[in-house]
Here is the input.
Amino acid sequence: MEVRTIDIVVNGKAYSKAAPVRMMLSDFLRHELGLTGTHVGCEHGVCGACTILFDGRSARSCLMLAVQASGHEITTVEGLANGSAMHPLQAALSEHHGLQCGFCTPGMLTTLVELLGDNPSPSAEEVRVAISGNLCRCTGYEGIVAATIEAAARMRAGTEAVS
Here is the structure.
């Protein structure tokens, strides 16, 4: 099996690690770097559980080979908090009961962090469109939408981190 060295920055930390050329990025993050917050659901890019930020844009890590990520910057759910201070979206999801089993949560968070970066004041409809590629079987989405609107307001007000 052919192996290549992957030079990658994940959550602000540089890594240089060998991996098989056919290893998916989701597996590399989980098994080689120990970042198990990126969940693997369908392995077809449909459910959104494996969504990460790839150079600041959401991407399905189950559809990308790890070698394709070499030279790029990745943010996983583990990289959203600022030390012990949660990202405002993480705090709002908790407060609005926007998570239950937690399986979809990492993908929802990374997808919505991208949305809030692009649109600091999204409407409920814009939030729904943004998460339309992320499946959740538990929440009914309303708490997620409310949490995103609340997080956007906190971020605009400058109360970005919550301990």
